[in-house]
TrEMBL record, chain A:
GO BP annotation list: Golgi vesicle budding; phospholipid translocation
Positions bound to ATP: D425, K426, T427, E535, F583, K606, R640, T720, G721, D722, R809, K815, N838, D839
Membrane-topology descriptor: Multi-pass membrane protein
The protein, known as: Phospholipid-transporting ATPase
Automatic annotation (TrEMBL), chain B:
Transmembrane regions listed in the UniProt entry: 52-74, 310-332
Pfam families in the cross-refs: CDC50 (PF03381)
Record field: compositional bias (Low complexity): 1-24
Cellular component annotations (GO), alphabetically ordered: endoplasmic reticulum; Golgi apparatus; plasma membrane
Family (UniProt): Belongs to the CDC50/LEM3 family.
The UniProt record lists the keyword Transmembrane helix: yes
Subcellular location: Membrane
Principal cellular location given in the protein's record: membrane
Annotated source species: Linum tenue
Presence of the UniProt keyword Metal-binding in the record: no
Highest taxon listed in the record's lineage: Eukaryota
Region (Disordered): 1-35
Protein name from the UniProt record: ALA-interacting subunit
Membrane topology reported for the UniProt record: Multi-pass membrane protein
Length: 1199, 352
């Protein structure tokens, strides 16, 4: 803001307004005092600014923050506690304790070693993550900030900052704590801040200091500032703040308008001075940081069932053993000496207690059936999948916005492979949110040439050829403006039949908005800061029509109007803005009351067609009808429309209304509601001017992506705030591939009958073979009724019968409701994708939330599980990463299940031959290292590297994805197959080795003992289990060989060393290896064990191949996928088209939140907030502007 | 984990702000290319085609059948004479109460006659085989103290040995149930009038003798309690020379087991009758255990055990059979690899 003439004028009049302002502040001060005596108020804090000693007794928290979970001392206890919240770990702790008691057949190491290893790995991971957080914190804590000390600005790190300190923040700097805004270099004591870190909104917001403190700008002055701040205790409400500044016995009320929150940054202001109010963890942003509700994948929940089944098996096995032991025990076995003083454990006279104790013995013995390292392995696999594969995939890197994909949680990788429903936001997700003024209708005449992509697509389908109008050479195409019509451009509108309407139209565009200007006040250099790109586009349009809005002050809007009266005449026209009636999602309109320099009072209004038409004055039906036709025409072309209207006000009516308005504005309760009511009073009897149409361009590759996803069996629902016509067009354009389309379309009332009828219709057409594809289009109002519990089921049935569903005009809450309707009602896996704050609720409600990152604010991304830059990257995310992850995790789980079951069953068979005594078959260390060393690594390698078909083929054959949706690889049938072969293999291991081991070995005729046999069996198990892994791999890299070979080798190295150390297995392996028997068995047993699986796999592939297997075969001779060359070029060399879009992306642009006027309001209207009854706070921006609005219009003209 | 790292990262991002958003665009976040992160590691992609299946089966049968034949021949080469004697060695009048007989102090010498069916080449191994004897019972297996067995210095260490640990407060060496229940039937052999020498040296694994049983540990208080579980030991010989004990203490894996008793180091001819003078001392009658005496030669593979050979032959044969089956199926109804009509979406709706 370069201080122009306007500012001077305002300053000069300040004295005159002072009395009014004090009366205003006096009123607010009273209310603040009222607030403080409220009993529920938790008290307040008093801060002595610029006086560290005075603040000392209160012991405010320091400004250093710590986001770490642990510190040096708490790490072990807290970390362990976290680990033992997992049932599996608890179970193993219990087993470990049990194995310390004498009833245990195994040495405690058997269970303690795996448990401690698992805990160790988990703790290391925790420590590593915490270390990264610590480093991050240190960087933040050591940022420099200027603080006032002895009349000079002294630079200290953030962490040294204390409550009450006076600090200086320079342009683009971040606020180190929550500050009370005292003074700014800007005139009028305002500063501009960006809050994108807080709420993702990138438009600038205004903050204004209390006038009394404007002067404390220089160190010399600031040092004199000795205020006392009384304010509320730290809380997490970003949009509220109450407090008083007591300065020289004067009490000044403070509002959120004076509060600069940590995490925001200063813009367009050289520097500001502020006093620290809340520090460190007491800042609002820190108090807002909370854990995202964690989501668990469906597969993992199914895994729980598997684990339960394993528990059941375990119990069954133990029961069999226990009963056997009760029957077996007898004093006839005199060599066991069961007569003399034997414990209950083996006492033949109390068979029941023998059985009970044996039950516990066996539980410890068979504990290996629960795969202890499964969870930690899966976690590691998923973590690497996220960090290394998803985040670093070049296919999902968007060059233009320099955004790679980001997996914000690693819980849901495999869930990505099973998605059946996608709920997509339209604006910003399917479309670019690059609004361009495309057409308009003024006074019943359509202006603007050109065709939208949707029109082209429609024409193509109809076989018609569109005559592309030749663009005039002078056509302007800048950001936000893609319009050409020689009839009204360059002042030609004056020759149209209704130039006055045109004038109103353009003025409405130039005046009725909340846009801020930035930069030079020349048409080429100015940039507009708008709350929504639509607004910026409209203002840009006005500029191009010759109504250049170039400056805004709190009370005035300056428009440089050319050609108003005659060509070449350029005048700067000021308009006094008297009232702004805000836009919000219920009003769906925005009005401005302005006073012309000649005293004319006009209300300009723009808004959604429905609300504007309700408020039009009677008469002129012809225009209304034509304009409505135009609106429908625009809508069907996929354009976003707004109606413009105006109304001349007579001063008396206005004055009386304005009083009510001021009253409403200053009311303390239900202010929003009252303001809306007051607005209704004046927003009536409007005169229609025309309508605007803005094109929201589709994102790159969206149609292809949707087609691919549809082929993959994924159903896409579009939940949009757009008009029904637009939505239907989008539906036509993208979802409906076939020719026969029947749209079950219903609105508003008689929803129930309609639902019933549609459902019957739908079911009827489903029955007919190759019936038409159905699309359900439902609007928000109707949805409100349809979501009623009594109708919900019917709605669900209907929508599940349709191939695609479009919900238009839905609110964020409804988006979430629809999502959870399908999630809970149909029990299908859902994915929500969106980019804006209005999508947060549905992102959180779905199984998987995907945020579009790069262009927009952070709010959707913050709530999401995965963030990608473009909608089309969903193909890669789902079809490649999701599918592979699903496949891999399924393999990992089933393999874990198999290897532990097999191993434990060999123990079980042995139990039958030991008089059910629970004697262990294997040595303690064999058993404890089986899971953590001998079979641990290869399965992780499979979890990382296995891929059935290449990424390119995954996308070429999207149908492969259906295997995931049907959950083909983790059905009970699959589990049972594995279980069957486990039993078979364990029988082979046990019986082949024991039977063949009972005769003398070698020429020496010596016999084997128990440990010889068990070592032999264990060797076979390790080899077989590792080879079985290789058999289930679709692609075998050298890491597979290394890990499988390494695991087997590790066993041999281990046993060769170990058998020199331990008594019972002393020399066993050397004895074994000295016999031919060893080598013959080691060949025989694994092959026999794997024969069953081999036959099964062979037959399955031969006669009942999976789809992926057929695809593998079809492409078996393809060369190794050489997409490498292409990948290397991503971001290095661009195609011409990419280059162009890159250049566009490089243009200065406002990155801002979509608040399409068709509906939708950014803010915190989260699904959960609404459920909790939390009122959605008003936008900070509104607060700023409302405060800058004067209570009364000035009686006199400005010049 | 994800849950945990999501929250702080968000807050820290909020707090430290867009250090990177403010940074110039040049600061590319483009991931670096690596075969690992792009999941393009070179890999072999085995496809289990019919060809592979058939050749795998053929390969297995080609390897397994010869091995099976060889093992079977080796096993068949072994001559084994088995004599079950636990009932036969009890005088007919005592057979109603065998336990009482075996626990009495009567003379339990019994003579058995064996006929050699085939020429047996020296060395001929003498085994005893017990049945229904749970040497692998949990109470039994752990009832020993390896430290005590190994070194003289820890001979008072009798942990794990209960109830055969102490007598009148002094340690039993060797302690525990295993040693206590030492097998004590004795065999001596004669062919006609010529007595056959039984070599009881070197019947245990060398590693056991050298390492597990100390040469300075002598039996003490052994079998001196009220109840005798089995054989006694010569107190003047160190444990490392008590080979019967060493063999016995290498506990068997299954309740039916053989243990080496000694060797006859002369060839036996076909038709030879061997007289066994048998001291039937060991009580298997309490638990109805059988006792057998086994004479056996060995082959390169060991004693008589057809299992390996049969298993190899069966598997080899099965694979051959499967290979033939698959070949026939392949010839009758060949499967074109990668036939798109197999794809579920090309088949009738409803899929597999």
């Amino acid at each position: 803001m370069s201080g122009g003439g306007g500012w001077e004028r305002i300053r000069s009049t300040r004295g005159g307004r002072l009395s009014r302002e004090t009366s205003l502040t006096g009123r607010t001060a009273r209310t603040v005092r009222l607030g403080r005596v409220q009993p529920q108020a938790p008290g307040y804090r008093t801060i002595f600014c610029n006086d560290r000693e005075a603040n000392l007794p209160v012991r405010f928290k320091g400004n250093s923050i710590s986001t770490t979970k642990y510190n040096f001392l708490t790490f072990l206890p807290k970390g362990l506690f976290e680990q033992f919240r997992r049932v599996a770990n608890c179970y193993f702790l219990l087993i470990s304790i049990l194995s310390m008691t004498p009833i245990s057949p195994v040495n405690p190491v058997t269970n303690v070693v795996p448990l401690s290893l698992v805990l160790f790995v988990s703790l290391i991971k925790e420590a590593f993550e915490d270390w990264k957080r610590l480093q991050n914190d240190m960087v933040i804590n050591n940022n420099p900030v200027d603080v006032l000390h002895d009349q000079v600005w002294e630079t200290i790190p953030w962490k040294k900052l204390q409550v009450g300190d006076i600090v200086r923040i320079k342009q683009d700097g971040f606020f180190p704590a929550d500050l009370l805004f005292l003074a700014s270099t800007n005139a009028d004591g305002v500063c501009y801040i960006e809050t994108s870190n807080l709420d993702g909104e990138t438009n600038l917001k205004i903050r204004k200091a209390v006038e009394r403190t404007w002067d404390y700008l220089t160190p010399e002055k600031a040092v004199e500032f000795k205020g006392e701040v009384q304010c509320e205790q730290p809380n997490n409400s970003l949009y509220t703040f109450t407090g008083n500044l007591i300065i020289e016995n004067q009490t000044l009320p403070l509002s959120p308008n004076q509060l600069l929150l940590r995490g925001c940054s200063l813009r367009n202001t050289e520097y500001i001075v502020g006093a620290v109010i809340f520090t460190g963890h007491e800042t609002k942003v820190m108090m807002n940081s909370m854990n995202v509700p964690s989501k668990r994948s469906t597969l993992e929940r199914k895994l729980d069932k598997l684990i339960l089944a394993l528990f059941g098996t375990l119990f069954g096995m133990c029961l069999v053993g226990a009963i056997g032991s009760g029957i077996f025990i007898s004093s006839d076995y005199y060599y066991l000496e069961l007569q003399r003083g034997v414990g209950l454990e083996f006492n033949p006279s109390s068979r029941f207690s023998v059985a009970i104790l044996t039950l516990f013995t066996l539980i410890t013995l068979y504990s290996t059936i629960i795969p202890i390292s499964l969870y930690v392995s899966i976690e590691m696999i998923k973590f690497i999948q996220c960090a290394q594969f998803i985040n670093k995939d070049l296919h999902m890197y968007h060059v233009e916005t320099n955004t790679p994909a980001l997996a914000r949680t690693s819980n849901l990788n495999e869930e990505l492979g099973q998605v059946e429903y996608i709920f997509s936001d339209k604006t910003g997700t399917l479309t670019r949110n690059l609004m361009e003024f495309f057409k308009c209708s003024i006074g019943g005449e359509v202006y603007g040439t050109g065709f939208t992509e949707i029109e082209r697509g429609g024409a193509q389908r109809m076989g018609a050829k569109i005559q592309e109008a030749q663009r005039s050479p002078h056509a302007v195409h800048e950001k936000g403006f893609n319009f050409d019509d020689s009839r009204i451009m360059r002042g030609a509108w004056r020759n149209e039949s209704n130039p006055d309407v045109c004038k109103e139209f353009f003025r409405c565009l130039a005046i009725c908005h909340t846009v801020l200007t930035e930069g030079d006040e020349s048409p080429d250099k100015i940039t507009y800061q708008a709350a929504s790109p639509d607004e910026a586009a409209l203002v840009t349009a006005a500029k191009n029509f010759g109504f250049f809005f170039y400056r805004r002050t709190p009370t005035m809007i300056y428009v440089r109007e050319s050609h108003v009266e005659k060509m070449g005449n350029i005048t700067d026209v000021p308009y006094e803005i008297l009232n702004v009636l805000e836009f919000n999602s219920t009003r769906k309109r925005q009005s401005v009351v302005c006073r012309y320099a000649d005293g004319r009072l006009v209300l300009y209004c723009k808004g959604a067609d429905t609300v504007i038409y309700e408020r039009l004055a009677d008469g002129n039906n012809e225009l209304k009808k034509i304009t409505r036709e135009h609106l429908e025409q625009f809508g069907s072309a996929g354009l976003r429309t707004l109606c413009l209207a105006y109304k001349d006000l007579n001063p008396e009516t206005y004055e009386s209304w304005n009083e009510k308005f001021i009253q409403a504005k200053s009311s303390l309760r239900d202010r929003e509601k009252k303001l809306d009511e007051v607005a209704e009073l004046i927003e009536k009897d409007l005169i229609l001017i025309g309508a605007t149409a803005i094109e929201d361009k589709l994102q790159e590759g969206v149609p292809a992506c949707i087609e691919t996803l549809a082929k993959a069996g994924i159903k896409i629902w579009v939940l949009t705030g757009d008009k029904m016509e637009t939505a239907i067009n989008i539906a036509y354009e993208h979802f409906v591939q076939g020719d026969q389309v029947e749209i079950a379309r219903f609105m508003k009332e008689v929803v129930k009958e309609e639902l019933k009828r549609c459902l019957e219709e739908a079911q009827h057409s489903m029955c007919t073979v190759s019936g038409p594809k159905l699309t359900l289009v439902i609007d928000g109002k109707c949805l409100m009724y349809a979501l009623d519990p009594s109708l919900r089921v019917m709605l669900l049935n209907l929508s599940l019968n349709c191939s695609s569903v479009v919900c238009c005009r839905v609110s964020p809450l409804q988006k979430a409701q629809v999502t959870s309707l399908v999630k809970k009602g149909a029990r299908k896996i859902t994915l929500s994708i969106g980019d804006g704050a209005n999508d947060v609720s549905m992102i959180q409600a779905a199984h998987i939330g995907v945020g579009i990152s790069g262009m927009e604010g952070m709010q959707a991304v913050m709530a999401s599980d995965f963030a990608i830059a473009q909608f089309r990257f969903l193909t890669d995310l789902l079809l490649v990463h999701g599918r592979w992850s699903y496949l891999r995790i399924c393999k990992v789980i089933t393999y874990f299940f198999y290897k532990n079951l097999t191993f434990t069953l060999t123990q079980f068979w042995f139990t039958f031959h030991t008089g059910f005594s629970g004697q262990r078959f294997y040595d303690d260390w064999f058993q404890s290292l089986y899971n953590v060393i001998f079979t641990a690594l290869p399965v992780i390698i499979v979890g990382l590297f296995d891929k059935d078909v290449s990424a390119a083929l995954s996308k070429k054959y999207p149908e492969l994805y259906k295997e995931g949706i049907k959950n083909m690889f983790f059905k009970w049938r699959v589990v049972w197959t594995w279980a069957f072969f486990s039993v078979y293999q364990s029988l082979v291991f046990y019986h082949f080795v024991t039977i063949s081991g009972t005769s003398g070995k070698n020429l020496s005729g010596r016999m084997f003992g128990l440990w010889d046999v068990s070592t032999m069996a264990f060797t076979c198990v390790v080899i077989t289990v590792n080879l079985r892994l290789l058999m289930m791999c679709n692609s075998i890299t050298r890491w597979h060989y290394i890990s499988v070979g390494g695991s087997i080798l590790a066993w041999f190295v281990f046993i060769l060393i170990y058998s020199l150390l331990r008594e019972n297995v002393y020399y066993v392996i050397y004895v074994l290896m000295g016999t031919f028997y060893f080598y013959l068995t080691i060949i025989l047993v694994p092959i026999v064990a794997l024969l069953g699986d081999f036959i099964y796999q062979g037959v399955e592939r031969w006669f009942f191949p999976y789809d992926y297997q057929v695809v593998q075969e079809m492409h078996r001779n393809d060369p190794e996928d050489n997409s490498r060359a292409g990948l290397l070029e991503i971001g290095n060399r661009l195609t011409p088209q990419e280059e162009r879009s890159y250049a566009i992306a490089q243009l200065p642009r406002e990155l801002s939140k979509h608040t399409g006027f068709a509906f939708d309001s950014p803010g915190y209207e989260s699904f959960f907030a609404a459920q909790l009854g939390v009122h959605a706070p008003q936008k900070a921006w509104d607060v700023a502007r409302r405060a800058s609005m004067r209570g009364k219009p000035k009686p006199s003209k400005k010049h | 984990m994800s849950n945990d790292n999501a929250a702080p990262s968000s807050s820290s991002a909020a707090a430290n702000g867009s250090a990177d958003s403010a940074a110039p665009r040049r600061n590319s976040k483009r991931p670096k290319y690596s075969k690992f992160t792009q999941q393009e590691l070179p890999a072999c992609k085995p496809i289990l085609t019919p060809g592979w299946v058939i050749s795998a089966f053929l390969l297995v049968s080609v390897i397994f059948v010869p091995i099976g034949v060889a093992s079977l021949f080796a096993s068949r080469d072994v001559v084994e004479v088995v004599d079950r004697y636990e009932t036969a060695c009890i005088p007919a009048q005592n057979r109603t109460n065998k336990v009482a007989y075996i626990q009495s102090s009567a003379n339990k010498i019994c003579v058995r006659t064996l006929t050699v069916p085939k020429r047996m080449k020296a060395p001929i191994y003498i085994y005893y085989e017990l049945d229904n004897f749970y040497q692998n019972h949990r109470r039994y297996v752990k009832s020993r103290n390896d430290m005590q067995l190994r070194s003289n210095s820890s001979q008072d260490d009798t942990s794990n040995c209960k109830p055969e640990d102490l007598i009148n407060g002094t340690a039993i060496v060797p302690c525990g149930l295993i040693a206590w229940s030492l097998f004590n039937d004795t065999y001596s052999f004669s062919r006609g009038n010529e007595s056959l020498n039984v070599n009881k040296k070197d019947i245990s694994w060398k590693s056991d003798r050298d390492h597990k049983f100390g040469d300075n540990v002598f039996p003490k208080n052994f079998q001196s309690g009220g109840l005798k579980g089995g054989g006694s030991l010569n107190e003047s010989k160190p444990l490392s020379e008590q080979e019967d004990l060493i063999v016995w203490m290498r506990t068997a894996a299954l309740p039916t087991f053989r243990k080496l008793y000694g060797r006859i180091e002369v060839d036996l001819n076909r038709g030879d009758t061997i007289n066994v003078t048998l001291g039937n001392h060991y009580n298997t009658y309490s638990f109805n255990g059988k006792k057998r005496l086994v004479l056996s030669t060995t082959s390169w593979l060991g004693g008589k055990n057809d299992f390996l050979g049969i298993a190899y032959l069966t598997v080899g044969g099965l694979c051959l059979f499967l290979a033939v089956c698959f070949i026939i199926v392949y010839l009758v109804k060949p499967r074109r690899l990668g036939d798109p009509s197999y794809l579920s979406w090309n088949r009738s709706p409803g899929g597999r």
